[in-house]
Amino acid sequence: MSADKGFPIVGYRFNVTLMNGILDPTDVIYNAKNRLKLFSTPVDIQFSDITGLKKTRNITTFGSMTSTDGVSPQQTLTLKRGIFTIPSPLTITNLIESAFWNNRLLRRDILITTLNSEQEPTYAWLITNAYLEGWEWNGLNAGSNELLIESMSFKYTRINPIQLKFTKQ
Length: 169
Hints:
Helix content: 10-25%
Structural class: mainly beta
Strand content: 35-45%
Radius of gyration: 19 Å
Order of helices and strands: EHEEEEEHEEEE
Oligomer: single chain
Largest sheet: 8 strands, antiparallel
Number of helices: 2
Shape: globular
Distance between the termini: 23 Å
């Protein structure tokens, strides 16, 4: 008898949840599975591209000794999507933050979850204490037929992959 190896996870169905500090990330995962609407945690599923899901560490070598210094280097998470006529919760948060752009950093936890064909979570990454580093819009060109794309770059040092397995009942 062979062990169940499961199926590969697709990378084109996902959502992004901006944690507000009230809920535990597992509450969001389980509520997303049960399709309950969470009004206190904005979910944004309009992203077309997410890059920068990366976990690295600093390795030092002294002679034959290799060790880590215990400090995780900063990474950049980039979220891209088309701009809609009605702003998303993230856009509203970024607009509020831009009023204080030169004075303070608004830190937030970000949960990125892949979804199966039934919109149930299959794998997740929890990024903690991320802050918006940059907000960029692609160029405007009257001769092209492209969507206006915005990119948001967040700096972070901690990312925790979360393996999920839900079974049918």
